[in-house]
Amino acid sequence: MINEYGFTEAKNDFSKVFNTVYNELKPAIIKRRKDQEILMLRKDLLRDYLPAEFKVEIYREKDGTITLSMDTLEIAVNAPNMESALEELIKELIDYAKEYLERSQLFINSPNRKSHFPYVLRLMLCDSDDEIKALLKFSYAS
User: Fold this and answer.
1) Is the pLDDT of residue 40 over 90?
2) How far apart are CA 112 and CA 120, in angstroms?
3) 75-79 and 66-70 strand pairing
4) Is residue 59 domain-shared with residue 25, that is, in the same domain?
């Protein structure tokens, strides 16, 4: 079972709670009023619970430009070449993640945006554009 702590108990003995999460690799549930929050290690969250890759389709347009489309998040960009398209896609992903978090109550409660949350969280845990780039898995559209 997962260790559960009342908020005051967890606050008063945070070192013990954190050591359990860190050393025993066990998430902890912190209860506060009617809410329950989970404390876990970032590496466990990244490894076990968030998307490891973002599928991106590549389209070569008739005018020679490149369109990159990520249907999961309903984001598409078009640019003169692949390098520019990739830069634009990363910028759009970061902007979308920031907007999603700024307006989280709206997005989490919207049927067409609710499923985006794990992707947004994964993006926000990236420390660089290169980390985001490493998540992208490209395939040519058929």
Assistant:
1) no
2) 14
3) antiparallel
4) no
